[in-house]
Every structure is written in structure tokens, then in C-alpha cells.
Design a protein that fits this description.
mainly alpha, about 40% helix, extended
Length: about 90
């Protein structure tokens, strides 16, 4: 579990280890949707926040690992869960 996921390097490493030794490790990545600054390569590439960078890295890493190890039993899929704003009204007690 990585509470400061950033670019999802932990997910990448876990997938590579699983292919290398046949393991069945899983990962949970947590990242707040921190906005990417305007004059950065990430923003110019179309990533509005750090979460999107991490999701793209996981996709690309899974594709690369699957191409490099076509005979390995490898599943590169993942799920994304997003928290919504609260529906509770602010009440001053």
C-alpha cells in the first residue's frame, strides 16, 4: 500500500516482481488529485493532475511487461476509485 503514490512506481515494481517470480502480489495506490503546475511537461502532455500521471504509468508499464513476457501469466488491469465531495451540510454547533 502506497499512500503517496505519485507516478505509481510502486505499482510498476510490483507488476515486474510478479512476472519475475510468478508471485501474486497486489498493490493499493493512494494519491490526492494534486493539480499539475501550468508550465510543466506533464501539463503540456495533457495530464491535469498527478492521479492521471499514475494511471497512465500503470497502463504503459502493464503493456510493456506483457510485451516483454508474452508467456507469463500476467494481468495488467486495475481499478480506480474516486471519493466525492460530502453531501452533508455545514452546521455550526
Amino acid at each position: 500500500m502506497d499512500f503517496f503514490s505519485g507516478s505509481a512506481s510502486t505499482a510498476h515494481a510490483v507488476m515486474e516482481l510478479n512476472v519475475a517470480d510468478g508471485g501474486k502480489r497486489k498493490y493499493i495506490m493512494v494519491q490526492i488529485p494534486e493539480i499539475v503546475e501550468e508550465d510543466t511537461p506533464a501539463k503540456k502532455a495533457g495530464y491535469p493532475n498527478i492521479c492521471e500521471i499514475g494511471k497512465e504509468r500503470i497502463r504503459r508499464a502493464a503493456k510493456k511487461i506483457a510485451e516483454e513476457h508474452p508467456d507469463a501469466k500476467f494481468y495488467g488491469g486495475f481499478r480506480v476509485l474516486k471519493l466525492d465531495d460530502t453531501n452533508m451540510k455545514y452546521v455550526y454547533y
